[in-house]
Amino acid sequence: MYTAPVLVAGEWRQAAECGRFQPFNPSTRAAIDRYFPVSSWRDCDDALECAVQAAAQLKQLPAETRAAFLELYANKIEGAADELCEIANEETGLPIEPRLLNVELPRTTNQLRQAAAAARSGSWSQATLDTAANIRTLRAPIGPVIVFGPNNFPFAFNGVAGGDFAAAIAAGNPVIAKAHSAHPHTCQKLANLAHAAALEAGLPAAAVQMLYGTAREDGLRLVSDPRTGASAFTGSQNAGLALKRAADEAGNPIYLELSSINPIVILEGALKQRGFSLAEEFASSCLMGTGQFCTNPGLVILPAGESADTFVDRCTALFNEAPVGTLLNKGTEDNLKRAARQLCDAGAERLTAENTQDPDRCCQPNTLLMAKGQQFLQNPHGFQTEAFGNTALIVTSQGTEETRKILESLEGNLTGCIYSAEDGEECGEDDAVYTQLEPVLRNKVGRLLNDKMPTGVAVSPAMNHGGPYPASGHPGFTAVGIPASMQRFSKLECYDNVRAHRLPALLLDRNPGKAWRLIDGEWTQGDVTPL
Questions:
Q1: Per-residue pLDDT at 1
Q2: What Cα–Cα distance (Å) separates residue 508 from each residue in 139, 253, 516?
Q3: Out of 44, 294, 363, 417, which one is annotated catalytic?
C-alpha cells in the first residue's frame, strides 16, 4: 500500500511511520483513496536536527534571499491554483468558487508577498541604537519554528503556506510544518511547491520541512524540545493547551489561537432603527462558510423588548430558510452537535427547526438558540461553550446593568462588536450606554468593532488577530498582520560595546537600506549623525 512521503532533511522520503491515515471527503462521507503516514519520533528528531543546521545557514544569508523565496512561492501557488483548489475542495468540502479560488488563495499569496516586503525592509527587527552608551539591540531569528495548521483554512492558515509560516520564514527561521489530517494532500502539494521555490531561491534545503501526523506524545515532545525556537498552533482548546503545558514546562515560546465566541452587542437605538437589516447582517455573517470561521459571531446580546422580538423572529426565519452548508469533517460535525446539546442543557431554548441530518454529507441544521440574561449569569461558563459552525446564541438583557454584568462574565475573545444608532435621539441614548459598556468589552477582546460583523480578518499591518485567553495563549501578539506577527518568531539580541565590524548590518552607524531604526530615541531611516 503506497503511503505519501514526508518532506524531511531537504528531500521527499519515506516516513519512519508508526501508523497511517486516510483523508475524508465531507461532501460524500467517503474516505479518499490516499494514505498518509503518522511519523515516529525518528522523523521528528531528524527534522529538528536538520532545522538547527538550516537556522545557522539562514542567519548567514541576506534578507533578500528569504524575500525572493516568499515571492517565488507565491507565484508557484498561483500557477497551481486550479489543481490546489480541486484537491482542497475534495478534502474540505469548501467551494472552489468563490471561497478557495477567489478569496482564500489570493489572501495566501498576498500574505507571502507582504512577508517578503517586510523581510526585505528590515524595519520589523526594530533596530535600536543608543550611541552614547554604545548599546545596540535588534530582533533576530529565534530558531526552528513548529507550525500546526488548522482544519478550516487549507491555504491561508496552512502550516506550510499560511500566515504563521510566512511570518516565521520572513523573520529568518526554518519551519517544520505539521499538516492537518483533514487536508493532507493539499498540504503535500503546497509543500512540494515550497520545496521547489526554496531550492530555486537558494534557501537551505531543510528550511521547509513537513510531517503529516505524529503520535500525541511526539507532538508534545516537538514543542518542548530544546532545539525548538518557538511553535504556533491554531485549533481546538484542548489540543492547544496540552501543547502549551509541554512548551511552558520546557521554557519554549508557543503562540496559540484557540476558541472564541465573538460577542455582538446591539443597543436599543440600533434595534429600533434597523433591527430588520441587522438580523439579515447577523444571519449572513453567522452562516457564511457554515460558520467555520474563528471570528464567527456566536453570541448576540440585546435588550429585551418589542424590537428584540422582531430581531429574533427575523433571525429565526433566516436560519430556517438558509441552505445548510457542509461541515469540514466528521469531527467538526460531532463537536458542533455536542456543543449545541451543551448549550441546550445549560438552559438555552432552540428557536429553529430540528431538521433531519443529511446522511450523505457532514452537516448540522442551522441552529439558533436563545436564553435570558439571568440564565446566562447563573451559568456563564456553560453558555460560553463554543459552537464552531452554523449555530449561535441570542441572549436578551433586562437593561444596561445586566448587559454589563454579562460582558464582565465573558472569557477572552478574538473580537467583539457594539452596534448603536446612527443618528437622531436614539444616537445620543446609545452613546451614553456605549460609554458604559465599551470599557468592559474592550478588556475582553483583541479587536473591537463598531457596526460591523467580525467575520473576516483583513491582512493589514494594523490587524490584531489575537486576544485575551482563551482566544489566544498571549494577549500581546497577533497571528495576522505583518510585520507584527513576525515578532512571535524572534528574540532580542543586544550588543554592548561590540566593535563595529562585528555588528549585524542593521546595527551599524550607516543604514544598509531603508529600514526604520530607533536611534537615540528618534525613529529614522537615516544614518547615525556624527556628534
A1: 67
A2: 15, 29, 13
A3: 294
What sign does the CA torsion over 254, 257, 259, 263 have? positive
For residue 169, being part of any structural domain is answered with: yes
Find all residues with CB under 8 Å of 31, minimum gap 6, and list them. 22, 23, 24, 25
Does the pTM of the predicted model rise above 0.85?
Answer: yes
Flag whether pLDDT at 354 surpasses 90. no
193 and 296 in a common domain: no
Q: Is 294 a catalytic residue?
A: yes
Least confident range from 195-199, 356-360, 452-456: namely 356-360
230 and 275 co-located in one domain: no
pLDDT at 356: 66
Please report the pLDDT score of residue 428 as a whole number.
84
36-39 and 490-496 beta bridge pairing: unpaired
**For 153-178, how does the pLDDT look when each residue is reduced to its tens digit (9 = 90+)?**
999 999 999 999 999 999 999 999 99
Looking at the fold, whether 254 and 270 belong to one and the same domain comes out as no
- Which burial class, exposed, middle or buried, applies to 1 when counting CB atoms under 10 A from its CB (0-12, 13-18, 19+)? exposed
Residue 31 confidence (pLDDT) above 90: yes
Alpha helices in 122-215 (DSSP H): 163-170, 184-201
| Residue 468, burial from CB neighbour count under 10 angstroms (0-12, 13-18, 19+) | middle
Task: Classify each residue of 345-354 as buried b or exposed e, where b means 16 or more C-beta atoms within 10 Å of its C-beta.
Answer: ebbbebbbee
Active-site residue, selected from the candidate residues 257, 333, 386, 426: 257
Domain coverage including residue 312: 263-450
Is residue 44 part of the annotated active site? The answer reads no
Number of independent structural domains in the chain = 2
Whether the per-residue pLDDT at 396 is higher than 80: the answer is: yes
The answer, yes or no, to whether residue 531 has pLDDT greater than 70, is no
